[in-house]
Design goal:
Pathway: Cell wall biogenesis; peptidoglycan biosynthesis. By secondary structure, the chain is an alpha+beta fold. The protein folds into three domains: about 100 residues, Rossmann fold (3-Layer(aba) Sandwich), CATH 3.40.50; about 110 residues, ATP-grasp fold, B domain (D-amino Acid Aminotransferase, Chain A, domain 1, 2-Layer Sandwich); about 60 residues, Dna Ligase, domain 1, CATH 3.30.1490.
């Protein structure tokens, strides 16, 4: 008996500078999904065009009315599941999810509310503080607001970090060591977003924690220690290899258990689903949360696939689990 295969569109790209990474992540998922179970297709979503790629890399426009594609012989292709692996906007901040909800398209990962919330660093940390998850001291500014340098430095002390409130891939982040550098750092961050966060410096080990819901259970895939060769884990460190990543992190069991517990609590408290990777700084054994990514990098060099390998879950099973969860949600 031949099972009716489900059609899966791996949706990659995006509107931000992260689209390059997303295309690599999408390729890994496209290559890894089990062809005995699924017909797998590629869809690229960019600012100026949304298109479907056939096996010969020929482009067909996506019909935005119902996210379908009309092929050469007038055959219309609809997807049972969209595997969302867009980093940044519109796939990680809820925009695409809200559109898919509106047209009745099933997709992987968390829904539009969780995506929008976790893409907003300030709001995520505010929600999680209610669940006892610590974060750095911070000051929030909107574009055009008066910036009182003396007041900020007095409250947060130097060095401090300036970062866009909503941006992925560590774009627009600066470490400020002198009072005189603060205004320039805010200008860099405001290029990425109209809202910025200025945070106190947490002096400790940075760890990246992969958490997923796998076969009905929230599991910590792994804790990876980030050893940046730059001042901090910036874009270059993340994507151009300017950091050393050690899985598992060199921490004692007591600290590991505490990190796992807090990472799971953060995931469950936010009502998350699908892949997630959250960043923490460990100070005196306490994990302080920096941010949560709901569509983390998934290229072969990325942290989450490394953690899955270490945990013993194959990429095929990891990706298949996401598709099956989406299908189960659809049938409810």
């Amino acid at each position: 008996m031949v099972m009716n295969k489900k059609s899966v569109a791996v949706v990659m790209g995006g509107y931000s500078d992260e689209y390059v990474v997303s295309l690599k992540s999408g390729q890994l998922i496209y290559d890894s999904l089990d062809r005995d179970l699924y017909d797998v297709y590629k869809v690229v979503v960019l600012k100026n065009e949304w298109y479907f790629l056939d096996k010969n890399d020929k482009k067909y426009e996506i019909n935005k009315g119902d996210f379908s594609v009309t092929l050469e012989n007038n055959e219309k292709l609809k997807f049972d599941v969209c595997f969302n692996i867009i980093h940044g906007t519109p796939g990680e901040n809820g925009i695409l999810q809200a559109y898919w909800d509106a047209i009745g398209q099933t997709y992987t990962g968390c829904d539009f509310y969780q995506s929008a919330l976790t893409f907003n660093k300030k709001d995520t940390l505010a929600v999680l503080s209610k669940y006892g998850i610590p974060s750095a001291k911070s000051i929030y500014l909107r574009k055009g607001e008066n910036i009182n340098v003396d007041e900020i430095v007095e409250k947060l002390k130097l060095p401090l970090f300036v970062k866009p409130n909503q941006s992925g891939s560590s774009l627009g982040i600066s470490k400020v060591k002198e009072k005189s550098e603060l205004i320039a750092a805010t200008e860099i961050a405001f290029k990425e977003d109209d809202e910025i966060l200025i945070e106190s410096f947490l002096d400790g080990m940075e760890v990246s924690v992969g958490v997923i819901d796998f076969k009905g259970e929230t599991i910590v895939l792994g804790i990876t220690e980030i050893v940046p060769t730059n001042e901090f884990f910036d874009y270059e460190a993340k994507y151009e290899g300017a950091s050393e990543e050690i899985t598992p992190a060199r921490i004692n069991d007591e600290t590991r258990i505490r990190v796992e517990e807090i990472a799971k609590r953060a995931y469950d408290s936010l009502g998350m689903s699908g892949f997630s990777r959250s960043e923490y700084i460990l100070m005196d054994g306490i994990p302080y949360m920096l941010e949560m990514n709901t569509n983390p990098g998934f290229s072969p060099a990325s942290i989450l696939p490394q953690q899955a390998r270490h945990y013993g879950i194959s990429i095929t099973d990891l990706c298949g689990n996401e598709v099956e969860k989406a299908l189960a949600k659809k049938s409810k």
